[in-house]
Amino acid sequence: MTKEELKQKTVSAISLGCDKNKVDLEKMLGRIKEYGLQIVEEPEEADIVIVNTCAFIRPAQEEAIMNILSMEKLKNEQRIEKVIVTGCFPERNYNSMKENFPTIDAFLRLNENDNIVGTIEKLYGLEPSKPIKKYERVLTNSPSYAYLKIADGCDNVCSYCTIPRIRGRYKSYPMEDLVDEAKNLVSRGVKEIILVAQDPTRYGEDLYKENCLIKLCEKLCKIKGLDRIRLHYAYPEKVSDELLSYIAKNEKMCKYLDIPLQHIDNDILKSMRRKLDEKDTKELIEKIKSNYPEIALRSTFIVGYPGESKAQFKKLCDFVQETKFDYAGFFPYSREPNTASFFMKKQVPEFIKRRRLKKITKIQNDIVTEKAKEKIGQTVEVLVDSFDPQTGEYMGHSKKMSPLVDFNVKFVDNGNVKCYTYVKVKIYDFDGSDYKGEIV
Prior knowledge:
The chain is α/β, with parallel strands linked by helices.
């Protein structure tokens, strides 16, 4: 086979895990497209399938295994030719995966992502090309928004987290490269950029010896055609008055902040190796609500952490009830090997984790329902992300709603709507998962 013959092959990808993992896949697909291979949506229609995996917690690994087995089945049925597994799962379990999935053609460690084209060439008996330097990311979501990964790895060593072992130490990407990437995305129609990293609020401290998150945002704000900048995963100890003021005053910054708090009990927070205690956490939330009420708050919490008592769980429930976050996600503790919490005594039984998860989720759902009633009758500016021809509905999100993780706004066309543009929508209903509205 020649390289020109290889370029007649088709590639599909399965994207699993977080938005940071998604960016890695989009860059791999960009290199593949630049090389000349055709990208198709459905794995069943492809010659080569990439399964980009997550391995953060056990459920993510189980999802990865299920997808790998499905692709193995297609290969054994000779419906696809090659299967390549990428992402955090091979990085975390490289040797065992090679043993357990002998028919998979290649497992790529994270530092091999740049050589995805060379890997494909080798699978077809060709001499690997040099890594492709210039390419455009292939967006795997609505082109109205895109994620900008500003750093990789993490230095926080939380007791339950596997990321430092998988992704390594914190590494900021050069500011000029990020600005160039953002400009390219905007030139292709992207209206909103979501800044992501394991800890974006530490951006620049390793590379420039000072915190440069606001400096980066200022440079991004100067990009013509970029309307919105959203910040995800702001670690609480780094949410300063300067950052809050910048978000509140800058027109392009979405009035939205995702702050993963994980718990509120002092003993649990200390065991988790979190930086803020209960007092500091409550003071931060109160400051945001009092001084910056326009900023919508999202957070995430872990239930069933080792040693979590009934009283400690109740304290967490009371905190969620009192705080009334605009959005919140809850996850049962996952006992992961090679983490400090794996070796802790008093592991909470699974059935108690499930029961606690159900209880605290209901508390937040009731809060969300009450907050939704307050939005009935309000008019919001919606960035239109997609159209469903089966229902005839458009779907989009406002500045205070992050796509994929929060609610959407759904509405029916009035004859003038176009995807990836803005419309004014008056909200008239909430069905528990999405807002319903009509165009003003």
